[in-house]
Amino acid sequence: MNLALQGGGAHGAFAWGVLDKLLEDGRIDIEGLSAASAGAMNASVYAYGKMTGGLDGARQALHDFWRRISVAGSLYSPAKRLPWEFWSTNGNSDHSLGYWIFDSITRMFSPYQLNPFDINPLRDVLAASVDFEKLVQCKCTNLFISATNVRTGKVRVFRNEEMSLDVVMASACLPYLFKAVEIDGEHYWDGGYMGNPALFPLFYHTESRDVIVLHLNPIHRPDVPRTSVDISDRINEISFNSSLLKEFRAIAFVNKLIDEDWIKDEYKQRLKHVLVHSIRADMALADLNVSSKFNCDWDFLTGLRDKGREAAAEWLDRNYEHIGGQSTVDLRAEYLGLHSGGIVDEHHPKAQPNPTTPRARRKSSARAEAPIRAVS
User: Fold this and answer.
1) How far apart are CA 101 and CA 56, in angstroms?
2) What is the pLDDT of residue 106?
3) Per-residue pLDDT tens for 281-315?
4) How far apart are CA 93 and CA 95, in angstroms?
5) Predicted TM-score (pTM) of this structure
6) Phi and psi torsions of 254, nearest 5°
7) Which of 149, 239, 295, 300 has the most CB atoms in a 10 Å sphere around its CB?
8) Which is it for the CA torsion 163, 169, 174, 180, positive or negative?
9) 3-class DSSP assignment, residue 275
């Protein structure tokens, strides 16, 4: 199968748990990993660990990486909680004095002013966890790491032969904390802005039709945010999910073309019917907000890991038998809102002309052209 990992700061420990359980179970081999931000770190550590030590090596590498994250966070985190604040929070830091000071300063000053030497302890943690000179030779996992080009606003996807410490740091570069990372004369910010994660590389460059999307940023929230903190958090979640939802729309439309036999025989082999699966952290992380993404306490990280392991175990129990046979996610219903009332998708069946008439067939062909080129 292929796996797509979202970013989410410390919430990436949930993805660590998912990977740990999949590795422990041993029935699924991960062909391709597309990832951004914290997901890119998990992906590179996983690939290096598997390359050098097999499945057990990958599990140990992930554990050691997150342990180093916790140690570094206890020393260098700019949003550390004060001792008495540990007893009154569930992992969030939005009411912490340290976090408020940190948040306020980063809104007023850029990293070019606050951090002119671009000091980033996370870089040292990653360098201690992955030998990138060896990782470029990895043949056991196809890596696709996304970063956002600051100048063009487009996503750049780096593959195995391009892997470096700078590539992964670019994918995790939050622009209000760190200077843009320069690679080959271009500057990059966090990949989550334009590909969180990017799915299209998995269609072009892997054999497997199955992809599990691991969601760390909630798509649905039951309540309308009222406070400034909640509003800011929700805007963050929506922004970091937008590119993924657009790719889901393209997948749903191309799968519809294939299922309903709209494609001429000579073009059918150019399309891949993608089977989509998802492991979502919506419920597990429902009580956490953006401030908790800076929480590096070991108990907090291992708690997220355990929730990720539990989610992966539940997913395997329900869906393992469907791998290779069918999607376990209804994209149109769960992600594109087609059953919420009204026509919100121009490709909704009610919006389609009768495909039996020549005029309708011409219109259908015109509508199909762009998605086919995007996903074929």
Assistant:
1) 41
2) 77
3) 988 888 888 888 889 999 999 999 999 999 999 99
4) 5
5) 0.84
6) -65, -40
7) 295
8) negative
9) strand
